[in-house]
Amino acid sequence: MALDHEDQWDGIRQDTDKSDSRHAAGSAEDASVHSTSAHQDPFDIADLIDGMDDIATMQPAQFVTDTPFVNDDSSAGSDNTDTSSTGDVVSPDNGTVDARQLSPALPQDSGSPQPERESTMEPAAEERERETAAAEETEKTSAAEEPQGAESKEDQTAEDSTPANLSLARRLWKRPVCHTWWHKVLWELVHVAVFAGLVLYSLWILQSSVYPDDPKTRDPQQNSGALFLHTLFNHDITVQAAENGWSVFSSIPQGIAWLNALLLAAFFVFLIVAINRFWIAAWLFLTISTVYSIANSIKVEERNSIIIPSDLNFLSSGAGGKLLSFIPDSFQSLIGSTIRQLVLLAVLMIVLNHFDCRRSCISPTKHRRIAAAVRVALCCVYVLGTVWFASSMLVTGTVGQKIDARFNDQPALYDSRTDAQVNGVVVAFTHLLDNKVMDEPANYSRQTMEDLASRYAAQADAINATRTENMTDSTVIMILSESFTDPTRVPGTQWNEDPVPYLHQLQQQTTSGLMLSSGYGGGTANMEYMSLTGMALPNFSAGLSTPYQQLVPKEKWTPSFNQLWQQGDSIGIHPYYSTLYGRKIVYKKFGFRSLRTLDNPDDPFTTMLNTIDRNPYVSDAATYNSVMAELQDHQSPEFINVMTMQNHLPYTDWYDNNQFHVTDAATGEDFPEDEESTANTYAKGLNYTDQALQNFLAQLDQLDRPVTVIWYGDHYPSAFATANSDPANALALHETDYFIWSNAASASAGVKLNDEDAAYSSSNFFMAQAAEHMNAKVSPYLAFLTRMHQQIAAMGLQIDATSTSGAEYLDAQGNPIDEADLTDEQRQLLDDYKLVQYDVTAGKGYLHNTGFMDVPASDENGV
Fold first, then answer.
1. SS3 at position 654
2. Which residues neighbour 828 within 8 Å (Cβ) at sequence distance 6 or greater?
3. pLDDT per residue over 509-526, tens digit each?
4. Whole-angstrom distance between the N-terminal and C-terminal Cα of the chain?
5. Distances (CA, A) of 452 to 39, 233, 447, 747, 784
6. Closest by CA position to 125, among listed 62, 85, 78
7. Three-state SS string across 470-537, please?
8. How many Å apart are CA 733 and CA 304, to the nearest integer?
9. 605: buried, middle or exposed (CB in 10 Å: 19+, 13-18, 0-12)?
10. pTM (2 d.p.)
11. What does the alpha-carbon distance between residue 376 and residue 289 come to, in Å, rounded to a whole number?
C-alpha cells in the first residue's frame, strides 16, 4: 500500500520521539538511583543488561535518525532489482533492497584522497527508507486487527495470564516507602507498642517460671499459657491470670519489678541495635525469653533452682545435646507446641520486616561507616554497662549498689529460687553474673598463711603420733552413687518392701551416716568437687555456683586428694560423656592418669558396659565390673574416683517386674499417678544398685591387698513432689547416705567410727574421715579438716530461708547451727577455712611450698 510522503515522515518522527523519550526517561531514572545511592558502586550489571535489551529491541528507524548512511556505489544501479539475498530488506518498489545500501560509510585507504562526505543519505535511499518504515507500521496494524482462531485466542490467554499474576504478586510484595512524615511516625508508634508489650509479656513468663506448681501460672499436663506463647490464645488461662491480678508479680515489690523491666528493655534495645532490624530483634528477644522460661521451669521443678549464668557453660562445653535427655516427659508436648508457634511467629516477623518502611533502626543514608560505628559503640556501652552494674550492685558503697538499693533490691543469694521470687528472675540472674571467686579475707598475707601452715603442721604431728598406717599404701575408691538416697527416709512415704536391705545391714557394720548435700535434684559436680579437694562450696561467692566450670579451668594451682598417690596412680571412671560439667578438663588439671568415659566407643571399657531393661544409663553393676577390671590391670595402690549413672533422672517406668509400691504414710492412699510411677521406678533402680553394691564389696573382700571404699549419694532425686512441696522437709531432702568400708586385707577391716564422729558429715570431710577410719597419717590440711569436722559436723549451701549467711551448718546430732550461736573456736576455724580456700583458689598460693598438702612419706619399713 502506497503512503503519502508527509505521512511517512510523521511516522518516522513519532518513532524517533518515542525512542528519545525512552532513553531520556531511562537516563533520568538512572541519575535518580545514583544520586540516592552514592555510597554504592556506580556500575551495576543489571543496568548494563537492561541497556543491552533496549538496544536489541530498537527498530531500524531509530538507527536511521542516529547514524548517517551512504549508498555503496556497487548497488547504485540495482534499486529496483528483486533479490533473495539474506542481506536484503523490504523496499516499497519491489519488496527488497540491498542491505549494503544501509551500511555506514567505511573509511577509505589513508593513501587515497578522501572525497568530501555528505552528512545525509542520497535522496533515493532516504525515500526507500521512509517507505520501508511506513510499510512495516501498516503491517503491524493490520496484523493486530486480524481475527484469530479459537485455539490461537486460548494460547494467547494462557500466555498473558502468568505475567499478570506475577505482576499482581510483585505489586502485593512490593516494599513500601515512607513518602510522608506520618508514615514514619505510624511505624514508630507500632514499634513502641510492640516493644512495651513484649517486655511486659517476657517479664510475666519469666516470673511465672519460678512457680511451677501454681496452677494459675503453669500446668504441664494442660500446656498452660504462662510459660508459652499459646497463652495468648488460651482464654481460660488468660482470664484466670487477669482475675488473679497478675499474681506472679504480687510477690515482688513494685520498685524491683521496674528494675526487672528496665534490664529486660535494655537487653531488647541491645538486640535491636546489634541487628538493626526491629522485627527480627523482636522475634529473637521473645524466643530467648520463652526458651529461658521453659528451661527455668524445668530446673525449678527438678532442682529447686533457677537457670544461672554458669549453667550456660554447658552450651560452650559441648554438652548441650546431652541435656535434652534429662527433660521430663511432662514438658515434651509443651516444648513441641512452642517450637511450632515460634516458627509461625518467625514467618510473621519476616513479613512485618518486609512491609515496615522503617526497617533500619539506624539508617545508614550516605554515611554507612559512621552508622556502623554508632551501632558498635552503642553495643559496647551496653556490654560494659551490664558488666559494671552486675559487678557493683552487691558491693556496698558503690554507685551500682546505690542504684540497686533505690529499686528496693533485697538479695537472697543463699537460694536462687528464693532470690528470683523475691527480686524477680532478671535481677536474680544479674546478681550471679559476676564470677568473683570469693572475697579476700581482711588479714590475708604471706605471713598469715605461713603462720596458719605452721599451726596445723603441729596439729598434724600430734595426730600422726598415734596413727600407724599410710593412706597411700592402700587403694582408695571413692564412689559417687548418682541420686542415691534411702527411700524409706523420704518424709510422708511408706513402702511395701525395703528397696535397699543390704545398705541397711552394712550401715550397722562400718563407718556410716548422713551427708548434707548442697543440691536437690542436681548438683553432682559440686559434691564431687568438695570430696576431691576438701573445699567448701559455701565459702565461695554466690555467683560461683559450679567450680568445675567457673573455677578449675582457670586455676594455676589445683591441689586434690588423688595427688597424694604417686603420679599416674589415679584414674577417673564415669560411664557417661566427659563434656558434662567439663570433667575432661578438670581431671587433667587434677592430675588424673585418665578419665574413662563413653567418649571412645572402641575403648574396651565401653564395650563391657550395659544397661537394665529400658533404662538408658549404664548399670551400676557394669560400672563396678569396670572398677574390678582396673584393679586387675593395676596392681599397685591407687586412687580411683567413680561417678555412676544408673539412677539419673528421669524415671519413666524403665523396669520390668517392678515389685515396689509407695503410698502416703498418713492416709495409706496412693500418690498422684505421675509421682507414684516415678517413685516406684526410682526405688527399683535403687534395689538394683543395692544388689550390685553387695556383689562388688564381696569381690573386693577376695583381693589380697588393702582397699578402702568411700561411698555416698550425691543428692536427692526430684521424684517426690509431695514431700518437696512442704518447706518443713527441706533439710531432710538434703541428707543422703554415705559409708566408709575396708576390705578384709585392710588393717581397718570392720572398723566403725562412733556416731559422734560419723553420724553427720559433708563431702569435703570425707578424706579426713577416711584417714581416721584407716588410722592413717594426715597432712596439715587433713589435720585442719579433721578439727573442722569435730566442731562443725557438716556444711553446705543454705537450706533454711530464715538465715542470711549463705551457708548451712549442722552439729554432730544433725541440728542446724545458727551463725549467731557459733563459738569462738568455730568462728576461728571458719576464718582459717576461708583463708586456706582463698589462697588456693583466688590468692597468691602462699601455701604452695609449705608442705601444707603433703602427707608423711613411708619409711623403708613402710611406716
1. coil
2. none
3. 999 999 999 988 888 999
4. 131
5. 70, 65, 9, 33, 10
6. 78
7. CHHHCEEEEEEECCCCCHHHCCCEEECCCCCHHHHHHHCCCEEEEEECCCECCCHHHHHHHHHHCCCH
8. 11
9. middle
10. 0.65
11. 24
505 burial level (CB within 10 Å; 0-12, 13-18, 19+):
exposed
With contact defined as beta carbons under 8 Å apart, do 708 and 741 qualify?
Answer: yes
Cα separation, 284 vs 278, in Å, equals: 10
Q: Which residue has the cell 511505624?
A: 187
Q: From CA 431, how far away is CA 415, in angstroms rounded? A: 12
Run of H or E including 760: strand 760-761
The number of C-alpha atoms within 13 Å of 105 and in the hemisphere containing its C-beta is 17
Cα separation, 614 vs 657, in Å, equals 12
DSSP conformation class of 331 = G
* Residue carrying the nine cell digits 535397699: 500
Residue from 511, 531, 514 nearest 739 by CA: 511
Is omega for the bond preceding 328 within 30 degrees of 0, making it cis?
Answer: no
pLDDT of 814-853, one tens digit each?
Answer: 999 998 999 999 999 999 999 999 999 999 999 999 999 9
Please check whether residue 582 is in contact with residue 553, taking contact to mean a CB–CB distance below 8 angstroms: yes
457: nearest Cα among 47, 853, 44:
853
Q: Provide the residue type at 550 as one letter.
A: Q
Alpha-carbon gap, residue 627 to 611, rounded angstroms: 16
